[in-house]
Amino acid sequence: MKIGFIGTGIMGKPMAHNLQQAGHSLYFSEHFEPAPGELMGERGFACATPCEVARASDIIITMLPDTPHVDDVLFNPEYGVIHGLSSDKVVVDMSSISPVATKSFAKRIIDAGAEYIDAPVSGGEVGAKEGTLSIMVGGNESVFLRIKPLLDIMGKNVTLVGQVGDGQTCKVANQIIVALNIEAVAEALLFASRSGANPARVREALMGGFASSRVLEVHGERMIHGKFDPGFRISLHQKDLNLALENARLLNISLPNTAMAQQLFNACAALGGKEWDHSALIRALENQACFSIR
């Protein structure tokens, strides 16, 4: 297929690479960022604008940092994707953005005659490279079935959650769980280390019990070794938890532990860590304790 792919960052680039390896041709926009040189060639083509990407492609995938970026790429009056759409095209937004904005974006794309799917992902850089992402989809079932072979290339757990916007709601829920798991692992390793135990051996022991988790496995090791190059930046997790807390306010529900996790991310940002991996949340706790587990 001819696939437009806009947003080739930490996650997007390996996702695009996997689509190319499966035999698909990809079109990249040089408006948002330079086209990735390593993906150019027989199956990679550079376009000047998102609009040109849409004209050249059957499916247009966006993988962008935040809601305003998706809004600009899709609807900018000069170069937006919407100006290159026709009735046979599908826009697939794999960014993690506002569920409310997603529903508005979908209406505008559908009113323009094309189709819209929201399909945010979880699994980090490792999952993107290995093609093992969890993909949470919102949209029409027939459209979902049309693009599912592409999603299966990028992920191993592809689920149609519900209608447009439900994929983004599911992703926000995912980010709540991940943040609270990171905070729990950080507290546990700090407690163990401050008590005099070896945090690496504590982690190893916990991996065999009910406390075992992917966060303990991957991010626990990052915490122990102090390897905080992103994976998934704290600034992006802050954005996702803001979505959770803003929507909780609209729903009149309380998410007290989500708010606490956000405060710890804010503390990391105050330490200069917005670009750290989100596992570096432990640094906020270490700073409060005047103690490092490393």
Can you describe this structure?
The chain is of the alpha/beta class and 294 residues long. The protein is built from twelve helices and nine strands. It has helices at 12-21, 50-56, 67-75, 99-111, 124-130, 141-154, 166-194, 199-206, 214-225, 234-251, 256-270, 281-289; strands at 2-6, 25-29, 44-47, 59-62, 90-93, 115-118, 121-122, 133-138, 155-162. The strands form two sheets. It has a six-stranded parallel sheet, sandwiched between helices. It is elongated. The mean pLDDT is 96.
Structural class: alpha/beta
Distance between the termini: 49 Å
Radius of gyration: 20 Å
- Spatially, the strands of the biggest sheet line up as 3-2-1-4-5-6
**Strand tally, please?**
9
Summed up:
The protein is α/β, with parallel strands linked by helices.
Please tag this protein with its features.
12 helices; alpha/beta; six-stranded parallel beta sheet; 14% strand; single chain; 294 residues
Write the topology of this structure.
Blueprint: E1 2-6, H1 12-21, E2 25-29, E3 44-47, H2 50-56, E4 59-62, H3 67-75, E5 90-93, H4 99-111, E6 115-118, E7 121-122, H5 124-130, E8 133-138, H6 141-154, E9 155-162, H7 166-194, H8 199-206, H9 214-225, H10 234-251, H11 256-270, H12 281-289
Parallel strand pairs: 1-2, 1-4, 2-3, 4-5, 5-6, 8-9
Antiparallel strand pairs: 7-8
Helix pairs in contact: 1-5, 7-9, 7-10, 7-11, 7-12, 8-9, 10-11, 11-12
